[in-house]
Amino acid sequence: MEEFFNTIYYYTNNFYGVELDNYLYATVPGYLHNGIAMLFFSIITCAALYYWKAPVRRQLLWWFSFVGINAALTFIFGLWYTMTPLINNEIEAAEEWSYLDCIAFSFTSILWSIVFFVAISLLIKWWSPAKYVPFRKF
């Protein structure tokens, strides 16, 4: 599982600094922690959309609302996870990354969480009452 998340974050690691990439890859299994949280948030928000809300009207509006909720949860977790070592002074001065790197990493997590949300959405939509969200036919 760790190799999977390391691989997908490898494709977007140019958006943030090398120091943060090294920290998340080598020091702690940060990509694994963020990836599991991203997957968890995507599954929970997608299940809430299809089984709890089960929209009948304005289906696309509700789908995009839940994508936004998923993105916000992922952004907050990614920002918290990468800024905590900076705030607690757990990183040496030579290995510090900037706050902009933390924000950029959170945005890349949003991109991956949207991909996972769409994939999970396509998987579970057939067994829910809202079969036509977000696409009429597939």
Comma- or semicolon-separated keywords:
138 residues; mainly alpha; 5 helices; 71% helix; 0% strand
Indicate the topology.
Layout: H1 2-10, H2 18-27, H3 30-53, H4 59-87, H5 99-124
Helix pairs in contact: 1-3, 3-4, 3-5, 4-5
Describe the protein's architecture and organization.
- It contains 5 helices and no strands.
- With 138 residues, it is an all-alpha fold.
- The chain has one domain (2-127).
- Helix 1 packs across helix 3 (30-53), helix 3 packs antiparallel against helix 4 and helix 4 (59-87) packs antiparallel against helix 5.
- The longest helix is centred in the middle third of the chain and has 29 residues, at 59-87.
- The protein is elongated, with a radius of gyration of 17 Å.
- The two termini are 29 Å apart.
- The model has no long low-confidence stretch (mean pLDDT 88).
Quick overview:
This protein is mainly α. It is 71% helix and 0% strand.
- The helix count comes to 5
- What profile does the largest beta sheet have? none
Share in β-strands: under 5%
Query: What fraction, in percent, of the residue positions are helical?
Result: over 70%
Gross morphology is elongated
Question: How would you spell out the order of helices and strands?
Answer: HHHHH
Low-confidence stretches: none
| Alpha-carbon Rg, integer | 17 Å
How many extended strands? 0
Structural class call reads mainly alpha
Q: What's the rounded overall pLDDT mean?
A: 88
> How many structural units, i.e. domains?
1
Report the span from N to C terminus. 29 Å
